Amino acid sequence: METVVFPFSSKFLLAKYLLVFALFISAKALIKLPINETIPAVIVFGDSIVDAGNNNDLNTVIRCDFLPYGQDFAGGVPTGRFCNGKVPSDLIAEELGIKDIVPAYLDPKLKPQDLLTGVTFASGGTGYDPLTPKLASVISLGEQLNYFKEYIGKLKANAGEEKTNFILAKSMFLVVAGSDDIANTYFVLRARKLQYDVPAYTDLMVNSAAEFVKELYGLGARKIGVFSTPPIGCVPSQRTLGGGIERECADDYNVAAILFNKKLSSVLNSFKTSMPDGRFVYIDVYNPLLGLIQNPQKNGFEVVDNGCCGTGNIEVAVLCNKLSPSTCTDVSKYIFWDSYHPTEKAYRALVTPILQNIIGDFF
Description:
- One of its GO terms (molecular function) is lipase activity.
- Keywords: Membrane, Transmembrane, Transmembrane helix.
- This protein is an alpha/beta fold.
- It has a single domain (38-286, 348-362), classed as Rossmann fold.
- It has twelve helices and six strands.
């Protein structure tokens, strides 16, 4: 077979064409930013929804660095993500064209260059209530802030102060917490029920959330998105624990979530006046996830009230392991991976439209 030899100019033009074509193809899949705007990194705080392995070396039962977790992740490797594949922080970074995954800050394999495009400090089982991480033996939001301060120091050492300030001012900061406070600390363990009714407990949560956002702002963050709590009463484990014999959605859990979300949205809106150079974005996940649960067929799902791992009724974290007799033969039909966390497919169905709706609020 005769080899075709391109002259230098032809090879250069071909390479240029292929590069332009590749950029065109990838750009079609990305969220479009306003002209002359950029998001250099995604920096994440919170709980198991966005934990990528920070709990792996903790002495806690809230961990998942073992199969079947990660079975659909690259290479089928469990990373400490509470999912069969990618989690929302990964998908957001992917949609923004920043990188494929957002690594855990405590990952021993983390490279200095990873810091430039963002990490997650999140710890499964944590919450706004300072009691929540203590009960679960995980990393509190206060400790996550301390790691963030350490991260800033490393950024300055690697990239210089000017680039560090640019990254802090332009990056997307995401905070995802609250569901463990409501589901575990308040309703399941009843650790706060004698002290607080639901309105008072949601006040405690929102005051903590507000202080956390203010501290992030004080450290240089300017584009801060805070996720609402989901319809936590509709996840499989809470149906089992609080939904009665028919395992319906636990209404009292959802009422608390709605009340907290209303207060959170209001306080974030108030920051626009007190900190006008910041962007404080309330990210509603309650209604999109509830819509997915109520109308699963629209996105190709069939099972809404069980997880894919084990019986699907209660297994999560250490209870969802390779010895769990799985009832799931096709993950793509399930909204939930374990009894608490959605599948990657469900996250994808949620993240893209949510991001498209709120991206303009960051500018």
